[in-house]
Every structure is written in C-alpha cells, then in structure tokens.
Amino acid sequence: MMALYRHNGLLLPERRGIMGAIFKSLGKSEHGSRAVHHERRFGRITKQRLCRWVFLVVAIFSIYSTVFGLRMFIHAKMETSTSIAHYVEQDLLGSGIGTPPKSKHRKKYFPCEVEFMESIDDLVEPSNYINFTQFSLEYIDQEEKPFQNDLFEPRFGGHQTLEEREKSFFGRNQRLHCGFIKGPEGYSSSGFDLDEKDKTYMYNCKIVVSSCIFGSSDFLRRPTSKLISQYSKNNVCFVMFVDEQTLLKLSSEGNSPDHGGYIGLWKIVVVRNLPYTDMRRTGKVPKFLSHRLFPASRYSIWLDSKMRLQTDPMLIIEYFLWRRKAEYAISNHYRRHCVWEEVLQNKRLNKYNHTAIDEQFNFYQSDGLTKFDPSNPDNPLPSYVPEGSFIVRAHTPLSNLFSCLWFNEVDRFTSRDQLSFAYTYLKLRRMNPDRPFYLNMFKDCERRALAKLFHHRAVPSSPAAA
C-alpha cells in the first residue's frame, strides 16, 4: 500500500517501512531535495539490475532447455536405432543367417568344490592305472625335398598329405607327423629352437607343469608357492616357455631369471626362431606336444598364462586321472557345448578369417561331424567344446596320439583349437572301436577351483586373425 505526501509542491509516493521512514525524515531536513534525488536514482539502478538478472535467468533457462531437449532427441534416436538393429539381428538369426546376439549382462561363473585329498603324504600311483592301450609311436623328424620342387620350404608341422592324415588316426604302431620336423640337409631350422642346456633339463623331467608367453601377451603369474607341497617343488618341473621379446618385457618389469634360470618356481626356457607368425598357433606347440618336449615325462599339466596355479600338481593328477581312471582330462566350455555355436562365436568376434573357418567346418561336416545333442544320453562327451586353458594328461600311447592329431589339425586349418577338438576325438574313437581312449571331460567350475583367472595383457592385435 502506498500513500501520497507533498514535497516541494510534488505528490510523491510514500514508501512504507524502513526506507520510507528514512526518506520521510530526510524530506524534513534541509537536504530533503538531495535525498529525494538520490532515492530516485536508487530506484532506477535497482530496476536496471533486476532486468539484467531476469534476462540472465531466462537466457540460462533457454540454453538448458535447448541442450536438454537436444540430448533427449539424440537419446531417442539412438534407442530407435538400437531397437531396429536388434530386430534385424533377430530376423537374421531366425532365418539361420548371422551370428548370436551379444549379451548385455555378462554372466559370472564361479568355482565349485573339488574333493582333493587332504595331503599328498600317502599318495601312491594305483598299480593298475597304466592298464591302457599299448602300441609304439615314432615321429617324423625330417622330410626330403620333393623331386625338382624349387618351392619346397621346411615347415614345423611338415607337409602331411590327406592320405597320411587319414592313416594317422589308427591307434597302432606307426610313424607320424607331430611337429619338430626339419627339412633336408642344408635348409634352415623349421623353428622352436631351444638351448642345449634347457633340452637336457627338460629330458630329465618326469612330471611337468608348463605354460608359455609369446609376443609379450601376458604378465608372468607365479604358482602360489605356499599351496605347493615340498615334494612337488622337488620333483615337478615348472617350465615357462617365452620368446626373446617376452623375456625383455618381463625383465623391464623386474622379473629377471636368477642364475639358474628361475623366476620363482618357473624355470624360464627361451624359444628362438618361432615356427609361426601367429602367436596363438605357436602357443599350441607346448600346449599339445609336451610328450615331445619332455620325452621322459609320465604326466604333464598345461595351464594358460592367464591362470595362476594354486593347487598342488600331485593332487590334480590324483583327482582327474588316477581317481577317474583317465589318461587325458580337460574341462568343458563354461557356456558353449556345440561346435556350431563355437563357429558362430568365432565369426562374430572376428577371431579368425571367416573363409578359413568355413573351409575347416565344411571339411569336418563332410567327414561326419554332427551337432551336439544335449538330450542324447549316449553322447560320448558331455560337451563338444572344451575350455582348453587347463589340460591334465598321462603320456600314454593314445593320449600322445590324440595330442599329435589335435596339433596337426591346428597346423593344417585354423589356430582355434576349440573348433577341432570334437572332430579329432570323435574320429579317433570311430577309427579305433576296440581301443578306447579314456578322456575325462570335467566341469568348468572345477577348472576354476584349480587356478586363479586373470585377463590377458592388453597388446596390439597381431596378424593372427588375418
């Protein structure tokens, strides 16, 4: 509410409150005229500031509304595009073309309890354990140059013909291709060259735990020493194969071998002249051919370099081989159980050249490979896709033969060994109906209980997938 009062012949609004009282008192003073003048200036300045603040608030609100609206629009467009892509992918899968959709939420997998023996103190190899199929295997170690063939080049896996390949699946006395094959005299090595001192050490190993790192693809993960018995420390060879590049990388990170060539429990064995440019394929040499690298060994355990062993090797051998009366043990895959699914997954993730995968897969189908039927109680295996990062084996004739056959498939086709596992096993079994191969395909959760899993070191991709 305002009232009017007269000052110097003018009607002015009377402001209530403190400011009004001040101006009223000033109006009665001798400086009344100046006071009113200041009051008017104060009013004009206040209105100008107020207008500026209102304008600023409106401007900020307008900018915020514009940006927020644009973001909502983009988000809506992205949701629409994603939805369309999802329906297109579903249509492709429904028609049998395309690849499996990628899960938005990665399922977590956990270890399960494994009933190991409490101690290895009273551990004794069963007397009837080695009652497996017996025959003699010899290996081709040198090939002759085909007559007048100037294009001949020595290959680590040799030049196996399809006829030789077919005959090699018989469990009988034979001489077969199994890596480490040299060319004629005068040709350079085909690869995987080792120091003579390392060879001497390896030839004396009876029980082996091995792994490898090539191309600096991983960190060095030492077995958990406090969980390894003194007996195993004294009697088991822990061998880590590395190339020179990896050795330099490990040394730069403070992991240099001591005077004996050890880093923790690992005996570091340097491989020179790698046989393949594909580091994954090179890694299959120590993975599958431990019976060639350690010719006097009776048992071997392979673990991928992404794993840290935290179980005593002798307990592993007792549980997965002796107790199960098996000569070869490998876990099934944690998610996929059919080779058809594995083929699609490899293509979706571009793990290897798609044409090469198709050639291998079509070859296997033409030779009798069929889909895995989980409802069939007569399946020879609980899964046709392994999780090949952990393998336990006795070096029996059929176990060694299977390892050679599986390696030859990796050498001939793609380095994706999960694609060739079921075919190799089923063909070996089909061609030797009276000579059973005792393979223990155990649960993946048991594999997770044996070692701690890590991610591979992030390194630039190699031409392996080309």
Automatic annotation (TrEMBL):
<dbReference type="Pfam" id="PF04765">
    <property type="entry name" value="TOD1_MUCI70"/>
</dbReference>
<keyword id="KW-1133">Transmembrane helix</keyword>
<keyword id="KW-0472">Membrane</keyword>
<dbReference type="InterPro" id="IPR048354">
    <property type="entry name" value="TOD1_MUCI70_glycTrfase_dom"/>
</dbReference>
<keyword id="KW-0812">Transmembrane</keyword>
<feature type="transmembrane region" description="Helical">
    <location>
        <begin position="50"/>
        <end position="74"/>
    </location>
</feature>
<protein>
    <recommendedName>
        <fullName>TOD1/MUCI70 glycosyltransferase-like domain-containing protein</fullName>
    </recommendedName>
</protein>
<feature type="domain" description="TOD1/MUCI70 glycosyltransferase-like">
    <location>
        <begin position="137"/>
        <end position="456"/>
    </location>
</feature>
<dbReference type="InterPro" id="IPR006852">
    <property type="entry name" value="TOD1_MUCI70"/>
</dbReference>
